[in-house]
Amino acid sequence: MPGWLVVTCVRDQDRPNAMDNPMSLAREDYAACCCAIQNLCLSLHSQGIATKWTTGAVNFDERFAEAVGFSRDKEYTVGTIWFGL
Question: 40 forms bridges with which residues in the sheet?
């Protein structure tokens, strides 16, 4: 049962450089997404399902968002989770 799941985070439309500020809500949202990914990986592992969290270059290719089905203007990729038995 191999598969993959793309995790995205909503962009802060009003503050495009918000990630540069360590106190910003955008930075907190990114950290929360990362924590959710880790918890998902731990949960799948407890069920005997292997995972790999990747942030490879393909995640940030201009064509990736369209191929996966989200808007690069509104979201960005946090990572892709590969999973399987």
Answer: none
pLDDT digits (tens, 9 = 90+) for 37-77: 999 999 999 999 999 999 999 999 989 999 999 999 999 99
Listed in sequence order, the residues at least 6 apart from 51 whose beta carbon sits closer than 8 Å to its beta carbon are 40, 41, 44, 45, 81, 82, 83
Q: Are 45 and 37 in contact (CB under 8 A)?
A: no
Q: What are phi and psi of 14, to 5 degrees?
A: -80, -20
Cα–Cα distance between 10 and 77 in angstroms, integer? 9
Residue whose token pair is 């809500």: 25
Cβ-proximal residues to 74 (8 Å cutoff; 6+ apart), any chain: 10, 11, 13
Give the count of beta carbons closer than 10 Å to the beta carbon of residue 80: 19
